[in-house]
Amino acid sequence: MLESCKIVLNGVRDDKQLFRKELIKSLAWLNTNDQKQLSRWVKENFYNQHADVINEILLTKYDYAS
Hints:
By secondary structure, this protein is mainly alpha-helical. It contains three helices and no strands. It is globular.
């Protein structure tokens, strides 16, 4: 599932609103360990392009699956 989320996020990276939506959805689908891995991967790959979205989503306490 983690790899699928990475593929989707990579595919929508040029659309900020869609990237935000898919990041939230991806984090909701993943377990805690995979959420941490995805968060790290997103920061490494998209921080320059979507720092505002990444900071908002990763610092907000959404009701993710755990």
